[in-house]
Design brief:
The complex is a heterodimer of chains A (180) and B (128). Helices cover 37% and strands 33% of the residues of chain A. Chain A has 3 helices and 10 strands; from the N terminus they run ααββββββββαββ. By secondary structure, chain A is α+β, with helices and mostly antiparallel strands. The longest helix of chain A has 54 residues. In chain B, strand 2 and strand 3 form a beta hairpin. The longest helix of chain B has 50 residues. In chain B, strands 1-2-3 form a 3-stranded antiparallel β-sheet. Chain B is built from 3 helices and 3 strands; from the N terminus they run H-H-H-E-E-E. Chain B is rod-shaped, with a radius of gyration of 24 Å. With 128 residues, chain B is an alpha+beta fold. Classes of the chains: A alpha+beta (180), B alpha+beta (128). At the A-B interface, helix 2, strand 9 and strand 10 of A face helix 1 and strand 3 of B. Strand 10 of chain A pairs parallel with strand 3 of chain B, so a sheet runs across the interface.
Amino acid sequence: MIHRPLYLHKLARPGTSLVEMLVIISISTVITGVVIVAMAAMFRYDRNTSQHVAMRGELGRLAATVRNDLHQAISCQWDAPRQVLKILQPLEQSIEYRLLQGRWVRTATRGDAAAVTTAYGLFDSLQCECETSGARLNEIVRIRFHTNSADATEESSRANPPLDCRVVAIVGRDHLLLHQ
Amino acid sequence: MIFELVVSSVLLATLLVTISQVLVLLHRQTRLADRRFVAQQVLENLMEEFSGRLWNELSTAAILELTLPEEAQAKLPRVALGGEVVDETDPTAAKRISLRLTWQDFPGADQEPLVLTTWVFRKPDTTP
């Protein structure tokens, strides 16, 4: 028979049973699962928010550019079926806004010579509405840019809130610097 | 075993509360930023229409008669529009138009003001 020394008896502790190990492992599993789900929700929310903020910024930039172009215009025409806004400016300069592959593209042309194109992107379903089909000098144009919220479900609306931006601009305002 | 259970529960509860608070905070900040964006657009559009009026129609009383668009009333809680038109003569005859939009983000919060100011100038031959 083997006798243990006395100090080993004092230091001896009961071992961990299999049931305790299973309980701890299951608790750890639950915690890990919850943390992973929560982190995934955070990352998803972060991605949606970043996209929303970026789209909002782009939309604001697009609205400001459209307003500036209309201020320098002499007339504008809105082609609703094709979603094309054409702005005529002095010196044979024309500017065209059109939806192209999910991006609103601004094309500035002077005569037939040169074209400058700027794209305003990140829009999946941005649509444009204009109250009038055309406007001349000193007339007011009302344009509405919005994402299509009619087809969106409640969940998708919560994840990506619909964007809505209205632009009111007086055609040719920069040519009428002084008030009458 | 009870001890491990309690510690795990406390850790889990702390983690969940922290994450949910962060999510709520982020959502609130996004909503506030959205409202400010809407307010900016509304104010710019109102200023565009108002400053395009005739010289004699530009007055503080005319600002009070402006009506807010439906989108502003729908998206900005307790929204109110104010402003003033101030006559200036230096360096030339002009009117300084200030439009102020206020709204309350949530009950008990301070009114959020947003002010947009522009100047319009009169033609020299126009009678005041």
